[in-house]
Amino acid sequence: MTEIVVPDASVILKWVLPKHNEPDYERALRLRQLAIQETIIFKVPPLWLYEVGNTLSRDFPKQAKELIELLTMFNLNEVHWTKEWLHQCVYLVQRYKVTFYDAAYHSLAIVEKGTFVTADKQYAKKTRAIGSVETIDNWTHL
User: Fold this and answer.
1) For the segment 82-139, what is each residue's pLDDT rounded down to a tens digit?
2) In a domain, 62, yes or no
3) In this predicted model, what pLDDT tens digit does every residue of 42-52 receive, in sequence order?
4) Is residue 29 part of a domain?
5) Which domain holds residue 116?
6) Could you give the C-alpha distances from 90 to 42, 49, 71, 102, in angstroms and in order?
7) Is there a domain that residue 141 lies in?
8) What is the pTM of this model?
9) Which ranges in 24-117 belong to alpha helices (H)?
């Protein structure tokens, strides 16, 4: 069975940002390559585009449109909300005092029995006890 991976905006952005500015850039590209080779399956909440679009539009205004279009060409598998996913998300927010945005990715991984991969070490540390989360620098499949 192919492993499900839920990359968040912090990982997705590394696919298009200048590598000299991005820690774990090479690991993020290898993760993307595994999806292209169909070794893993990416699943993301629809909010990924808004988070990525916000960062690119704000920090890279001249290249934002081109970079956003490039990322949408990856055809990330957007999963729509379910009651189970929503309940898990609210639980994570309340239990671990994290943002709903971050919890959306993590709860999707939990519900889909996959792994949430993030560059956000603080989030991963806070929520490690519940499982299904790994930082890009520690994800063992790369």
Assistant:
1) 999 999 999 999 999 999 999 999 999 999 999 999 999 999 999 999 999 999 999 8
2) yes
3) 999 999 999 99
4) yes
5) 3-135
6) 22, 21, 28, 11
7) no
8) 0.93
9) 25-36, 48-59, 64-72, 83-96, 100-111
What's the rounded Cα separation, in Å, for the pair 68 and 141? Answer: 27
140 inside domain: no
Which residues lie closer than 8 Å to 36 by C-beta, 6 or more apart? none
Quick one: which H or E segment has residue 122?
helix 121-127
Look at the chain and report how many structural domains it folds into. 1
Amino acid at 6: V
**28 within 8 A of 22, measured Cβ to Cβ:** yes
**CA gap 79, 46 in Å, rounded:** 7
State the greatest distance between any 2 C-alpha atoms of the chain, in Å, as a whole number.
41
Per-residue pLDDT of 107-120, as tens digits, reads: 999 999 999 999 99
CATH number at residue 16: 3.40.50.1010
Say which amino acid occupies 7. P
List the structure tokens of 10. Answer: 């912090």
Contact 110, 103 (CB under 8 A): no
Amino acid present at 127: T
Give yes or no for a contact between 135 and 66, defined as CB atoms under 8 angstroms apart: no
